Structure formats: structure tokens, C-alpha cells
Amino acid sequence: MSLYQLTAKELHEKLHRKECSATEITESVFGRIDACEERVGAYVTLDRENALAAAEAVDKKIAAGEEIGPLAGIPVAVKDNICTKDVLTTCSSRMLYNFKPPYNATVVERLLGADFVMTGKANMDEFAMGSSCETSYFKKTRNPHDLSRVPGGSSGGSAAAVAAGEAVLSLGSDTGGSIRQPASLCGVIGLKPTYGSVSRYGLVAFASSLDQIGPFGRCVEDVAALYGAICGKDPMDATTARRDYPDFTAALRGEVKGLRIGIPKEYFGPGVDPQVKETVHAALRELEGAGAVLKEISLPGTDYALSAYYIISSAEASSNLARFDGVKYGYRAEEYDGLTDMYEKTRSQGFGDEVKRRIMLGTFVLSSGYYDAYYNKAKLFQKSLRAEFAAAFEDCDLIATPASPTTAFKLGENIGDPLKMYAADVCTIAVNIAGLPGLSLPCGAVQGLPVGMQFIGPRFSEERLFDAAYAFQTIRGGKLCDIPNL
Ligand code: GLN
């Protein structure tokens, strides 16, 4: 077995026992990148030189007899909307094609403190708007399990990199499903954390009240370790909660006896592929076999979540993206006649179609005369959806659903039909609106394509989600993810 195929947990043990060096790990991952990145296209930017330098620094620490943490020397891909000092951060947009941030996002600073190795910046849908990675200005990422299919989105590059073995771990961001849906389609584990548990400082804002950075990995322990390294209060982000977080890896027990799992019938309705439903049901029966108690529940607000999401997220996006005007950073139109013309041409040329659609929709729902009818109504719905989840959690400990209504679809299949593309997030979106944590884990396959199961918990219940996922991983013989031959 090559080093790139191992999990962070296994690699850490090897480093600890001096069975390999951090440099060898990084070289193995870049060897894999050399072998398959041309076909997968997970990265916008690769940073081999800095990665090798970071690995060498870890090797020096080991040689000096210093203790190293669980992420030291582990190759991690970072989504391209997370600011990395002096390394291109494009949001896969022409608008930021040349943008090198002068600072690191807080999550990156924390990972630097944990001695991680950044492999590069992962491809994504432009400004995180999309569910297939096809709205990227630069390239299309392909699903490592079937190169004719999408990896999901918007964090499709982060998911594909981990699925293909082109990174051991990665960071994505999730506003409406952008970690869980690609995790599901690529057959890896992804967590959208509780809103307010991970700093958004240095994450290029899409919808600030919904955005959250989170981890991808190939085993539950790795995802728990990466989350543990990035969560916590940050003075630079006033929306982060002040609280103590446990050692998530040490807390894993894998016990589901008596765990009450709610199964909301709305998530198993007509919009969801019958084989996906059956795969998730079968996985839940395995958990039942281990002592979990399954209960059918109802979350009637689910039907309105998609509409409310596109109102709230587009409203916030229209405001957040106003800063891209050609003055301060990024793209500027070459020819223009005066200031207004410069703004107009820059934004017309710099943004892609999907981004423009969201800005127009957001501007519309915030305009006078429509504000009450759309935006305020969506915010009212958000309150009632939160109450609905809170009531559901009085009777169950966590909720299980499919993470995506279908397996990976073909490249080009949905890109011409925005409403079809938006429907790719029906299973994930309510979680963001309610500010809850959601974890997607592989639970089977349909015609060789991975199916993801989603666990949803109350706010700050990540420990419980990890433990249930760990129990499922144990039932499956300790392994949920396979790197395909490429
Ligand atoms: N697919 C959804 C959208 O296009 C969610 C994106 C996300 O979570 N960033 O808005």
C-alpha cells in the first residue's frame, strides 16, 4: 500500500513509529497528483514547493525528538474560497483570478499551528454557488468514481481530492450543502459544523449567516481530528461561540445502543431516487441491529426550505459580492469610459452566469416593495423551521436522511437547468437554515456510485454525530471509503 492511500490516523502512527517521514508522505501524495490530477481536476492551484518545505519542517521536529500532533505532516487541500497568504485564492472566479490574500484565514492559521501540509487550493463552483463544480471559471472537476460524472459542489474539488487520494484531508465550505452533497457523491465523509463553531474570518463570504467551513476525510477519526483543530472562538469572527470543545477523537466510543434516530418522512419523498432511499434504509437497519431505536418523524417545513434558502442566500450574496468592483482587488475590465462604466464592465466580465443570477435575485428580494413579501417571509420561516427541529430533538437524539437525492449525475446533465441543479440540495439545505450540524458518510452504492447518509443533530452535537458515524464505520469493518483505481 502507498502512503497516499492511508488515513491521517494511520500516517500519524507511522510518523510516530518513524516508519516513514513527512517528506515521504507529501511526495507520495504529489506522486498520486501527478498520476491522476489531469483527469480528476481537483485543484485550481498546487503548491508543491511550500508543501515539501512544511513536511521537511515536521521531519526536523521529529528528528529533534519533539512531540507532534495528529495533523502534523498530513497533506490537506484547502477550498479556494479560504484565504491563504500569498497563495492564489480565486473562488474559481475570473473576478479573483489573480488575487493573493495578504493574510491567512483563521482556519489556515490554526492548521499551520498544527503543522499541517497544504497541498494546494481546491476547485469549486464560482463563489460557492452550484452543486456540481461546473460553474468554476477555470476547470471542471470529475468524480473519481466515474470520470464522466460530477463530484458535486460547490466543494467538489475538496471532495474529489480526498476521494482520489490526491489529499489525505481537505477543507470545504457549506452554505446549503456544499460539503455534504459532494462528500455523498464522491464517497467520502464530510461535516458541515454547527453555525458559529468554526471561524469564518478569511472565508470569502457568500451568505454570511449560513456559511460554515468544515472537514472532509476518509475515516471518522480523521474528520473529527480536523474539526477539532479548526473549531473554537475567534476574536476575528463575532459569530463564533465561546464554549469548550471536547477532544473529539478521544471521545469516540461507537456506541449506539438506545440512540433514538428520527427518520423524517419528507426526506424520503418522491424527489429522492428509490435506490438511494433503499440504500439509506438498509444502513439504518444495520444501526438498528446494533441497538439504535428508529422512529419515523415528520418535518413538514422541509418543503419550503429550498425556496427560503434561495431568498436568504441570494439576498446576502448580492450584498457580499458588491465589494468586487474592480477597484480594490482582482479583475478589472481593460477598457472603460469613466467610473460607472468601469464597475459595469468589470462585473459583467468578471462574474459568471450563475453568480449574476444570484445577485439579480438577491437584489430583487431586497428591493422596496418586495422585501416584506420575500426576504422577511423567508426569515420568518427560518424561525419556524428552527422550532420544528427543536421539537423533533425532544423525541430523538439525531435525525438520519439521505445526503443527496441522487448519486453523481453526468457532467452537463443539470447545468442548463438552474432549478434542477438547485434541487440537488433538498436534503442538506434545511440544516443550514436552522444552523445545525450535519455529517454525510458513505453508506453504500448504487450501480457503483457512492450513496451518502446524513446525520443531523442539535446545535453543538458534533460529538454525538461523530460517535454514531464511528459506530457505523465499526459495523462496516472499520472502513467506509475506498480510493478508486484511476
Ligand atoms: N448548491 C447550493 C448553492 O448553489 C449550496 C452551495 C453551498 O453550500 N455553498 O447555493
Mean pLDDT: 97
Ligands: glutamine
Structural class, from secondary structure content? alpha/beta
Approximate strand percentage? 5-15%
Low-confidence stretches: none
Shape: globular
How are helices and strands ordered from N to C? Answer: HHEHEHEHEHEEHEHEHHHHEHHEEH
Q: Tell me how many strands there are.
A: 11
DSSP helix fraction: 25-40%
The whole-angstrom Rg is 21 Å
The rounded distance between the terminal residues' Cα atoms is 15 Å
Number of helices: 15
Strand order of the largest sheet: 1-3-2-4-6-5-10-11-9-7-8
- Biggest sheet character: 11 strands, mixed
Summarize the structure.
The protein is built from 15 helices and eleven strands.
